[in-house]
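A common beginner's mistake is to predict each chain separately and then try to dock the pieces by hand. The better habit, illustrated here, is to supply every component at once so that their relative placement is modeled jointly.
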Amino acid sequence: MNLPFRARQVLTIARLELRRAFFSKRAFWVYLLAFFPALIFFGHVVEVRFKLQEQGGRMIAPALIDSVTEAESVDAVRSRLGEPIREFHWKRRGEDHHRLQYSDGKRRAEFRFQNGELTSRNIRSVVNIEEDKKIFAAVFQYFYLRVAIFFGCLGIFMNLFRGEMLDKTLHFWMLIPAPRPVLLAGKYLAGLGAAIVIFSTGVTVCFVLVLAAQFPAEAQAYWASAGPGHLARYVGAAALACAGYGSVFLAAGLLLRNPIVPAVVLLLWEGINGFLPAMLQKLSVIYYVQSLSPIPPPIEEDVPALARLLLAPAEPASPALAVLGVLGVTALVLWLASRAVSRLEINYSSD
Amino acid sequence: MTAAPPEIVLEEVSKFYGEVLGVNRVSLRIPPGITSLVGPNGSGKTTLMNLMTGLIHPDRGSLSLRGLSPRDPERLMRITGYATQFDSAPRGATGYEFVCTALLLYGYTREETDALAWKALDRVSLRDAAHRKVAAYSKGMRQRIRLAQAIAHNPEILILDEPLNGLDPLVRAETIALFREYAARGRHVILSSHVLGEVDVISDQVILIAKGSILAEGRIRSVREEMQEHPSQFLVRCENASRLASELFAAPHVSEVRLHGDRAGLLVHTRSREEFTRLVGQLAIDGHRIDSIIAADENVDSLYGYLIGGDK
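With all components supplied together, the output reads:
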């Protein structure tokens, strides 16, 4: 049989399997993983919109906010800055407490008074694009790459063979007139298509929501400069992670009955990646895909050195090496899986 | 010189599921025609079928189906259709979609797929239900849609696991006619059953299997004839049963004569079929009116009883 015929067989299998990969009842929680951060970013958009709406026409000049000094009285501040957006007044243990909130349109200032005198001032941006970009980078690296895509691929790819064995339907595929590696390729392609669509959409929605929370001018400036490139790298890294983890879990579904075992082993392997010798680091998916993230995620100063090692690659790979590395790991694992699928036997009664 | 008919050959095939025996040292040569694998649940029938189709591989021995190895699914499944006991239709698929899905994987074009699918659906009388979901089918309809999927690509070898289960009498007759038509065209039809009576009528040969081993194989009559240690049973329909009984019982090869339940015949046990046939002929010449003589134990039920001591 020639290559175009083989390719047609692979595509036919992938097309038939795609619906199952998208709508398997066992993989429903994959959608929760993919879109959970979008809920949080949406909440952020709502919060920013609410704050901007709340300040309405009561914005004051930035210089006025900056002019407020220690020990100034509440009456002096109010008379100079005018009516606040919000005002809180309460008494506790015989002391008089005041809190006044002002906004210059971009920043929100909160002045706290005790017995009529200013005791603290807290001035924060209503929304800060640089900060939000770092938060997004952190969500992408720590949540999407290490949790959502990892477990999402477990749900999607383990089901491709293992799920059908449990449903007692795998024999349908084993009886087709095609070599088993063709079946493997078709199923892998279906799982990969579903995983990439689900997680790329999740990542893109979050990215759009981050932009939606910003002031229009700043969002447009970012989108006109590095924004599309960053989004492409995030989506590319997500797709490569799906390819890498997908191949591993597809192979695990062929070799093992219990998905918890490969999940724990791989999670540990990926988790201790930072401690491994350079050579072994390259035999993981996380080593390559975290190198593709365009913005390094923030690591707070007080994070212990051990956790710092776990979270950051010792020596990030170049983008080209990262892409080739993931594809190499994927090809190796798929080759092993093709050997396993050729030996695979149907035995529903023992499952 | 004509070529030997293509056969299905199993040589010393053994399969174990861990410690559990599947089949043990099975050697068979199955010619074209209808062959029934008969045995109780767990006897190894499905294991044999799965071995033939490459769903499982033997631990020892080898198999060849019309010269093809089960380890070469690409070539084997082009000439083989297998209807298992389990549904394999994709979730939400209609009967038509199920049959088409399989055909697409054979590389047929859309037009060819459509034509072959309708032909197969017509063959199992499911045209009217073709666009209903398989999940909503009755047990008998599911049986038929699996059969339609197995025959859709016009295979040379048809392997069917309990294909008559759940079919109503009319559809059963149609299905048996289909098997016969396939067999008449020199194809293999291999079916399994644990209902012994039903395979009697349709099989060219039976393979009796129990606990993973082949007990007997061949045409039912020749299998019976090989079992010399068990007396043959005949039902003799006659006019004066009690007079005939005394004459028969006098013969040394007749071990038992019983009046049939309807009192219009005798059930005779004989150690020699030939001598019994000669004796009955002589009695007829002597004036006994004998309406018919029927072999009462040339059926798989009896064979099974003899072979495994009634443990069906």
